[in-house]
Amino acid sequence: xxxxxxxxxxxxxxxxxxxxxxxxxxxxxxxxxxxxxxxxxxxxxxxxxxxxxxxxxxxxxxxxxxxxxxxxxxxxxxxxxxxxxxxxxxxxxxxxxxxxxxxxxxxxxxxxxxxxxxxxxxxxxxxxxxxxxxxxxxxxxxxxxxxxxxxxxxxxxxxxxxxxxxxxxxxxxxxxxxxxxxxxxxxxxxxxxxxxxxxxxxxxxxxxxxxxxxxxxxxxxxxxxxxxxxxxxxxxxxxxxxxxxxxxxxxxxxxxxxxxxxxxxxxxxxxxxxxxxxxxxxxxxxxxxxxxxxxxxxxxxxxxxxxxxxxxxxxxxxxxxxxxxxxxxxxxxxxxxxxxxxxxxxxxxxxxxxxx
Length: 356
Hints:
Distance between the termini: 40 Å
CATH topology of the largest domain: Dehydroquinate synthase-like, alpha domain
Pfam family, one: Fe-ADH
Binding site for NAD(+): 37, 94-98, 116-119, 125, 131
Domain Alcohol dehydrogenase iron-type/glycerol dehydrogenase GldA: 8-154
CATH superfamily of the largest domain: Dehydroquinate synthase-like - alpha domain
Helix content: 40-55%
Protein name: Glycerol dehydrogenase
Largest sheet: 6 strands, parallel
Number of helices: 15
Number of domains: 2
Strand order of the largest sheet: 1-8-5-4-2-3
EC number: 1.1.1.6
Number of strands: 8
């Protein structure tokens, strides 16, 4: 089987990175669709418009609100089509970036992602998630290629509230262990190919960085003042985590995000926090003898990540029916097969119960 490694063409990170947006946008044309939510547009819109105008790039704002449903995507694409855009610039959190990916895929043009939070690794990936009208996960779609440019202004990221940062930690900490399971058990990565060794090394480096600098980075989150530790962890959460999962593959920790929302009180918890608890369940199922499960629980307590369903927001003690449904839905995810042994519903439900 062929191995495939994918990545953005250019990744730029640091305080003031946003100031280079105009010069990079100008490489691709003179007219850009700006996919952005109304709040971020109010905060950064004038600055972005000025930066692009200084390089003769005009913007066509496409505002994103609420869940990304097929209807929302159709509306955004209908707005972009007659505008004759040369590129898409997506600014904001995961939903705005995902919306930008959907528009760029339809328009067959370059995509520049500009995250304003570090809550997940969406900025670097080609994947985007669609929901139905009832807020249920509907599908994971893919652009043909990764974003052309990823601009990560850590001075902007550092102003985002700390809970966003914690979600990013939770999403990233699982990638080493999920990539290991995928590679060891013949799983496919997001390019429907075998994971290359490079992806595992990147995922390993991601975990080392988070464990070494996570506590100090969390302390800087929300202050508006990025520190060296903050810079390193942002790179781990966005770049290393993104490359690690997309080229390395996923396993149980991410599969569980299909089922955990069916447990009362959990649906509103951020994706990354669900992954964090899902990782502890995965390590439990792995029956590891290296002490990693205990070490991670200790680190979770230090940085403020949830270690149980209760800490994730579950109301009361989850019923057997809820745990069974969560397990059933999780095992239907493609990633669930990337594991050392086949899992059944009862085994996974029992593991969830141990982390209630």
